Amino acid sequence: MATEKEDMQRQLLALRDRIDAIDEQIGKLISERARCAQSVAEVKKASGETLVTYYRPEREAQVLRRAMERNEGPLGDEEVARLFREIMSACLALEEPIKVAFLGPEGTFTQQAALKHFGSSAVTRPMSVIDEVFREVEAGAVNYGVVPVENSTEGVVTHTLDNFIGSNLKICGEVELRIHHHLMVSDVTHTDSITRIYSHSQSLAQCRKWLDAHYPKAERIAVNSNAEAAKRIKGEWNAAAIAGEMAAELYGLQVLSEKIEDEPDNSTRFLIIGTEQVPPSGEDKTSIVVAVKNSPGALHGLLEPFQRHKVDLTRVETRPSRTGAWTYVFFIDFKGHVDQLAVQSALADVAAQVSDLKVLGSYPKGVL
């Protein structure tokens, strides 16, 4: 008679055999998908078009949404979507690897957002400032750029908004990243003698209460990025840095304290910028910028057409105009695509009463 241990071993062997068989099927299907992606590239090349577009933001958004809708568990929807994202990224790289500029250096949250959106097969290139990300895309040196636009606790990134005013680039997508800050040290750090802490100014602000409680006497030194902070402490025995997990892995640092941000739901929204207009995906957002003279009722007149045409606004930001005194620029996000009749009607009514209106892009609503 079989013992309980022998019975358990038989069950485990049967389950492992089943997993092996499933893995074999998955491998074959991934290879088949990759061959289909290669065939797509061949068809596009044979079409004779001078500029072949391999990456389709609306198509990828639709694939990810369907993957999440079909998901039966036990994996969560976002985990399933991430797996599909990596498969699509690898398949797309067979056609042509996507080149993406991001606000660097390597190890920043912006690079993490780029890899979350495009997958790890994308070729990412760090830029020192947001202006350079825009210039690289405009020059055609990269296919897309990734820039931060707003943080849930620190607000809008004004430098990104200002760049859109003078640029012809389009917003092609968005990605939201949950921001977790970690206190990290290097192999030379004396953890009981930390007197200075490096990080980006926004990260220092987002961790202020935690720092007040745990390192009230340590000097807080703002640098250009969290990744720069992570690199800087490699040679300082009395310093620590606040950065993300990616920076710790990239620069070989030890995480001393995890998730030290004051707000647990701290997140940052990033925009994908490119040169083409994106067709509707079925669940889209549109961003516009309008210039308005400062006069009584100007804001009401600007927003009323959206209410009348039942277009749902999601964000309104204002900036002083660079072109003249008492003129303001409004950045507006709303649900819908410029191809939709209600959106076209609302924009026509707005354009009739403002000094300038520019559509920055319609793009798929963030999936992950």
Topology summary:
Blueprint: H1 4-46, H2 57-70, H3 77-95, E1 99-103, H4 109-118, E2 123-127, H5 130-139, E3 144-151, E4 155-156, H6 158-165, E5 170-178, E6 182-185, E7 196-200, H7 201-206, H8 208-214, E8 219-223, H9 226-232, E9 239-243, H10 245-251, E10 254-257, E11 267-274, E12 284-293, H11 298-308, E13 313-320, E14 327-335, H12 341-351, E15 356-364
Parallel strand pairs: 1-2, 1-3, 7-8, 7-9
Antiparallel strand pairs: 3-4, 3-11, 5-11, 6-9, 6-10, 12-14, 12-15, 13-14
InterPro entries: ACT-like_dom_sf, ACT_dom, Chor_mutase/pphenate_deHydtase, Chorismate_II_sf, CM_dom_sf, CM_II_prokaryot, G/b/e-P-prot_chorismate_mutase, Preph_deHydtase
GO molecular function, one term: prephenate dehydratase activity
Subcellular location: Cytoplasm
In brief:
The chain is α/β, with parallel strands linked by helices and 368 residues long. It has twelve helices and 15 strands. Among the domains are: 182-257, Periplasmic binding protein-like II (D-Maltodextrin-Binding Protein, domain 2); 280-364, ACT domain (Alpha-Beta Plaits), CATH 3.30.70.260.
